[in-house]
Write a structure and sequence with these properties.
The protein is of the alpha/beta class. Strand 4, helix 4 (about 90-100) and strand 5 form a beta-alpha-beta unit. It starts with a strand and ends with a helix. It contains six helices and five strands; from the N terminus they run βαβαβαβαβαα. The protein has helices spanning about 10-25, 40-55, 70-75, 90-100, 115-125, 130-145; strands spanning about 1-5, 30, 60-65, 85, 105. Helix 1 (about 10-25) packs across helix 5, helix 2 (about 40-55) packs across helix 3 (about 70-75) and helix 4 packs parallel to helix 5. The longest helix is centred in the N-terminal third of the chain and has 13 residues, at about 10-25. It has one domain: 3-Layer(aba) Sandwich (Ribose 5-phosphate Isomerase B, Chain: A), CATH 3.40.1400. A five-stranded parallel beta sheet has the order 2-1-3-5-4, with helices on both faces.
Amino acid sequence: MKIAIGCDHGALTLKNTVVAHLEKQGHEVTDFGTYTMDSCDYPDYAAQAAQAVADGKCDRGIVLCTTGIGVSIAANKIKGIRCALLSDVMSARMTREHNDTNVMAIGAGVVGTMLALEIVDTWIGTEFSGNERHQRRIDKVMALEK
């Protein structure tokens, strides 16, 4: 799977860990930065990762900051993106099964490394259910962009 990833300085360490974890599993990761601990603005990196998903260059995206809130808001501003802020495994599974999310956000200051990797694995490994009622709801949400 091709995965876009982006973070600000508050999540650089976790992003690097997630990238290594995904690459070890055989995923192709496009890293949109940041690459240093210098203070930066999260929308710059979240938008690039989300846009790569919206454009079809990547299958899914992961965005990270200290809380995950800012990057999730920024990613959801990109047309075609359904980004969920995740801090538990059940939500990771349900947001793929029910909402067919294409981007996930995580807060490095909220979720520890081991749980973050479990959330990522669950989200990456879960497919959309294809259930008609869920698709109908997704269509209604996506129509709000118009």
